[in-house]
Amino acid sequence: MADIHNKEIDQVSGVETTGHEWDGLKELNNPLPKWWLYLFYVTIVWAVIYWVLYPSWPLISSYTTGILGANQRAEAIAAYEEVIAGRSEFADKVVATPLEDIGKDQQLLQFALANGQAAFGDNCAPCHGGGGAGSEGYPNLQDDTWIWGGTLEDIHTSLQYGIRSDHDEARFGEMPAFGRDELLTGEEIDQVANFVASRVGLTAEEGVDLAAGQTLYADNCAACHGESLEGIQEVGAPSLMSANYLYGKSLADIKAQIDTPRNGVMPAWAGRLDPATIKSLTLYVHSFGGGI
């Protein structure tokens, strides 16, 4: 590297060099523009003023509060409390008004639907999808297949207490594991699965005794799913005649659900969400058009 005091004029640019050279590259002495330097100085002055006026420097157990005493946390809390106060009137009215009567007050209904939409996105969409279309194992809230009923009261009850949740009043219905617990043999599972398939529009396997499957169904399944496969809402047994099956409607899916069933869980929202939000969610879910 060249001597730092050995400065020269660059022949190409006509600018004095700094005396630094690396691998034949010489550093030119191009000072920063005056406007840039002045702006830099202004930012330094502004930083010092900010340190004095606003909270900025951490201390051992606190921080400097600044002359103005500004507190963004306090401002955020105040803004939040203002919003809550603004909506409390409508929230209280939602709680006090019967579900079927909220729709008679358009302003109240609009508030409830907006509140329900926000709550649905935060709490329900991860399982049921943004528009309530659901997926395998998670019910579609847009169709007419509602295991526990799709009226306003039915939806409200499901939201409050959940399905197979840890709430004392949770709705509970469990499909026995006929194969895993050796309640039926593999052949018997094939027979009853094929019988159900033959009744719901699927093609049964050749050579399977459907009459035996019908007898097995009557002895083991009809008590919950009904003699005509119509389902029984009171015990949470879905209609097997429905176009939509929660865990798939192929013959293989039916066999799997008889053998080792999946029994999904919906959490209870009572205690997690306030009563106004649960009622708002009820109205919003009902607005999807499914149920009754």
From TrEMBL:
<dbReference type="InterPro" id="IPR050597">
    <property type="entry name" value="Cytochrome_c_Oxidase_Subunit"/>
</dbReference>
<comment type="similarity">
    <text>Belongs to the CcoP / FixP family.</text>
</comment>
<feature type="domain" description="Cytochrome c">
    <location>
        <begin position="111"/>
        <end position="200"/>
    </location>
</feature>
<comment type="function">
    <text>C-type cytochrome. Part of the cbb3-type cytochrome c oxidase complex. FixP subunit is required for transferring electrons from donor cytochrome c via its heme groups to FixO subunit. From there, electrons are shuttled to the catalytic binuclear center of FixN subunit where oxygen reduction takes place. The complex also functions as a proton pump.</text>
</comment>
<dbReference type="InterPro" id="IPR008168">
    <property type="entry name" value="Cyt_C_IC"/>
</dbReference>
<dbReference type="InterPro" id="IPR036909">
    <property type="entry name" value="Cyt_c-like_dom_sf"/>
</dbReference>
<comment type="subunit">
    <text>Component of the cbb3-type cytochrome c oxidase at least composed of FixN, FixO, FixQ and FixP.</text>
</comment>
<keyword id="KW-0406">Ion transport</keyword>
<feature type="transmembrane region" description="Helical">
    <location>
        <begin position="35"/>
        <end position="53"/>
    </location>
</feature>
<keyword id="KW-0679">Respiratory chain</keyword>
<dbReference type="InterPro" id="IPR032858">
    <property type="entry name" value="CcoP_N"/>
</dbReference>
<dbReference type="InterPro" id="IPR009056">
    <property type="entry name" value="Cyt_c-like_dom"/>
</dbReference>
<protein>
    <recommendedName>
        <fullName>Cbb3-type cytochrome c oxidase subunit</fullName>
    </recommendedName>
</protein>
<dbReference type="InterPro" id="IPR038414">
    <property type="entry name" value="CcoP_N_sf"/>
</dbReference>
<keyword id="KW-0812">Transmembrane</keyword>
<keyword id="KW-0479">Metal-binding</keyword>
<keyword id="KW-0813">Transport</keyword>
<keyword id="KW-0408">Iron</keyword>
<keyword id="KW-0472">Membrane</keyword>
<dbReference type="Pfam" id="PF14715">
    <property type="entry name" value="FixP_N"/>
</dbReference>
<keyword id="KW-0560">Oxidoreductase</keyword>
<keyword id="KW-1003">Cell membrane</keyword>
<keyword id="KW-0375">Hydrogen ion transport</keyword>
<dbReference type="InterPro" id="IPR004678">
    <property type="entry name" value="Cyt_c_oxidase_cbb3_su3"/>
</dbReference>
<feature type="domain" description="Cytochrome c">
    <location>
        <begin position="208"/>
        <end position="289"/>
    </location>
</feature>
<keyword id="KW-1133">Transmembrane helix</keyword>
<keyword id="KW-0677">Repeat</keyword>
<keyword id="KW-0997">Cell inner membrane</keyword>
<keyword id="KW-0249">Electron transport</keyword>
<keyword id="KW-0349">Heme</keyword>
<comment type="pathway">
    <text>Energy metabolism; oxidative phosphorylation.</text>
</comment>
<dbReference type="Pfam" id="PF13442">
    <property type="entry name" value="Cytochrome_CBB3"/>
</dbReference>
